[in-house]
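Dear colleagues,

As part of the handover before I leave the project, I'm documenting each prediction I ran so the next person doesn't have to rerun anything. This entry is a single chain, and its sequence is reproduced below.
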Amino acid sequence: MSYSSDTTAGPSPDLSAYIKSSGGTTIASATKKVQKKTVPTPETLSLTVPSGTAVGSYNVVGTLTDGGVTMTNIQNQALIICNGAAITGQPGSATACSGATVNFALTATGTSLTHQWKKGGVNVPDGGAVSGATTATLTINPVNSGHAGTYTCTVSSPCGPTSVTSSGATLTVPATTVIAANPSNRTVCQGASASFSVTADGASLSYQWRKNGINISGATSATYAIGSVVPADAGSYDCVVNGTCGGTKTSDAAALTVQTPPAITVHPGNQFPCSGGTAVFSVTATGSSLTYQWKRNGVIVVDTPTISGSTTATLTLTSVGAVTRVPTP
C-alpha cells in the first residue's frame, strides 16, 4: 500500500509507516529518509502486506521523526485485508430422470462470498422445484425436461477479483421410456415370411422379443422377422423395451397364425349298398381353414332330399337304388 504526507521538518527526518493489528501487533513497516522542503509536497512510502496475513481489520500508522524525536504523528488510516473469490471445486454435470432430485455444488474460498447460479447465462430464481439459487448448492426437485441445460455459478467477493464464474455443468433429462406403437397380429401361410415391429420413445433403448413369454435368442432390435414360417412358429409374440428412464415396458402381445396347406390323410372307400340302402363316403384331411366339395365323375354334387353333406367331410346317400341319380348343379 502507499501512504502520503507533506514534510516540512528537517533537516533529514525519517518517515515511517506501520500496519498494526487491532491488538497493536506490527505486521509490516517501512521507513525512509525525507528531505526538508520549504513547500509541502507529498512523500510516498510503500508497505507490503506479508503473505498469509489473516483476514481482518488493521490500522496504518505513520510518524515523522528526527533524531529519535517524534515530530508529528500522521493521521491513522483503516486497512481491511480480505481474500478475493476463488473457485476450488467445480460443479459436475448430471443425468437425471424426470421426478428425480439433482444437486449442483461448488466450493470456493474468499471473504464475504455471494453466489448466483445461472442457466444458459440467465440468473436462476428460487421457486417451484428450484432452491439454493444464491448458495453454493443449487437443488432441483423434482426434475423435469424443462430443467435440462447448462448451469454455472458466479461467486463474488468485495475483494479482488470481485467475481469468478464456474465452468458449465450440464443437466441431461432423458425422455421417459414409452411404447408408441404395438406389434400387430399376423396370419401367413407356411413357408412365407412374417415380421413384428414395435415403436418406442426414450433414451438408450434396448429390445427383447419373446414368444409365449420366453426370450427369443438374438431378437434384440425393434423388429423381429421370421424368414420361412413353419407351424411351430405359431404363438404369441411381445417385446420388452428398456430405457434410461421409466423402467421396463412390455408391448401388447401379437398372435402369429400359420396357415398349413391341405392334405388328405384318409381317402373315401368304395361303397356297395343294397337297393334302397344308404352309402356313406368319408374323407380325413389336415390343413388350415379347410373346405370340402364332393363330386361325382368330376361334377359337383349338391344336397337333395336323398343326398346330404356335399360340402362336408362326409357325404351320405340314402334310398340308393337303380333309379337313384346324383344331381348336378
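The chain has no helices and 34 strands. Residues 2-81 form a domain with the Immunoglobulin-like fold (CATH 2.60.40.10).

All the best with the project,
I.
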